[in-house]
Amino acid sequence: MDNYKEVEGKRVHDHRFGKNTMSTLARCIWVPCPVIIGAGPSGLAVAACLKERGIPSLILEKANCIASLWKLKTYDRLRLHLPKQFCELPFMPFPENFPTYPTKTQFVAYLELYKNSFGLVPVFNKTVVSAEFDDQCGFWRIKTLGLKQEETEYVSQWLIVATGENADEVVPRIDGMDDFGGPILHTSSYKSGLLFLGKDVLVVGCENSGMEVSLDLCNSNARPSLVVRDSVHVLPQEMLGKSTFGLSMWLLKWFPVRLVDRFLLLVSRFMLGDTEKFGLHRPEFGPLELKNRSGKTPVLDVGTLAKIKSGNIKVCLGIKRITHRAVEFVDGKKENFDAIILATGYKSNVPQWLKRKMVCLRRHFQEGGKVNVGCTP
User: Does residue 361 surpass a pLDDT of 50?
Assistant: First the structure.
C-alpha cells in the first residue's frame, strides 16, 4: 500500500473531495487503483486479470484468509461438483495430477498457488460496512471495520464487488427451535458425519449440500432423514461418459434449452429411475430452464439417491414445528432426532452495505473514466 495516500485523524481539504467533505476519521486511505471486495476465487481472478494488463488493485477481505467460505465453512468430504476444466481461474489451469473433481483441500491449495503466482496480497480482517458512490466528488467511499473495530475508509475511483452469492448463512426460524434441546447447526459448521455416529439426524434442505451431507452422515453410520419441502431436479453427475454439466453446455451450442432439458430428463430417468417414487418431485420446468428463471441449481447426484432408494436415508415432508428432541411434519408424522442440520443455503450480503447502484459508476465511465473495471451486482 506504499502508493496510497493516507490521512489520519484530521479533515481532508482536497480538490477531488471538495472543502471539508469528510469528517474526522481514524484513518482514510486514497487508493489510486480499483478496490476489490472479496478474496475468494472471483476476487483473485479479477485481480489477476487486471495485473496481466498492468493495472494494480487493492483486495479487501473480511476473513483472515483467502477463499474463507471454502476454508472455514465447508465439510471435509466436499469436492467440486463440476469437472476441473470448468472451474479453473484465468491464466492458470489446475495441476495435471488433480482428479477430474478436485477435493476441497486440492481446490484451496490451487487458490493459494494462484494468489502466490500472481503476487496478490489481500488486506485481511477488513469488514466492509458501507460502500457509497459520492456524486459530488466522483469517487467510491468504502468504510471498513478491523478486528478491534478500528475504522478505515478507502476512497477510490473504481469498485469491484466479488463477494459472491454465498456470503451469509440463511438460517430459517422454525416454530419450536428453542425447545429442541439438542444441537441445531447450519452446514457452514458441519465438518464430518463421524461426529454423529449412531445418531438420528434431520437434514433440512435437499439441494446439493443437503444431499451430500445426508450421504456423508449415512456413510458415517448415522441415521439421516432429509426434509424435501420443494420440488427438485436430481441429475446424475455424469451422462454417457461425460460430465452432465459439460454435456449440457455442448448441447446448448446446437439446440434450444427446452430440447436439451428433455434430453437430460430422459437420460436421468433411464439412469436414476423415477425420482417421484422416493418423494423427490421434479419441478414444472426443466433443469436448465429453471436455472435461467430462478437461479435454482439442479442436484448432481454423487450417490445419495441410491441410499434413499435403499431406505438408508429417509425422505420427509416439510416441518410443521419442532418440539423437545422431536420434529412434527406437515403430514402429521412426528419423529425423534438427536440433531438437526440446516442445509438452507446462503445469501449475498451486498444489499446490507452497498449504498448506491451501478448507475453511478456507469455514468462516471460515460463521462470520461479512464479504466472501465468497476462493477457491482
Answer: no
Beta-carbon contacts of residue 149 (< 8 Å; ≥ 6 apart): none
Whether the CB-CB separation of 329 and 337 falls below 8 Å is answered with no
Q: Using an 8 Å Cβ cutoff, are 60 and 184 in contact?
A: no
Q: Is the pLDDT of residue 2 over 60?
A: no
DSSP, res 153: E
Compute the distance between CA of residue 343 and CA of residue 209 in angstroms, rounded to an integer. 6
H or E element at residue 342: strand 339-342
Interval 12-54: pLDDT, tens: 334 344 433 334 445 899 999 999 999 999 999 999 999 999 9
CA 202 to each of CA 214, 232, 308, 310: distance values in angstroms, whole numbers, following the listed order: 9, 18, 14, 18
Residue 108's identity, in one-letter code, is V
Would you state the torsion angle of the CA atoms of residues 311, 314, 315, 316, taken in this order, to the nearest 10 degrees?
Answer: 140
**Of 3-17, 210-224, 286-300, minimum mean pLDDT range:** 3-17
**Residue 148 CB burial class (10 angstroms; 0-12, 13-18, ≥19):** exposed
Q: Which helix (H) or strand (E) holds 47?
A: helix 41-52
Exposed e or buried b per residue across 162-200, where buried means at least 16 C-beta atoms within 10 angstroms of its C-beta = bbbebbebeeeebeeeeebebebebbbebeebeebeebb
Instruction: Give, in degrees to the nearest 5, the angle at Cα 191 between 175 and 101.
Output: 120
C-alpha cell read off for 259: 430440447
pTM over 0.70: yes
Q: pLDDT over 90 for what percent of the chain?
A: 80
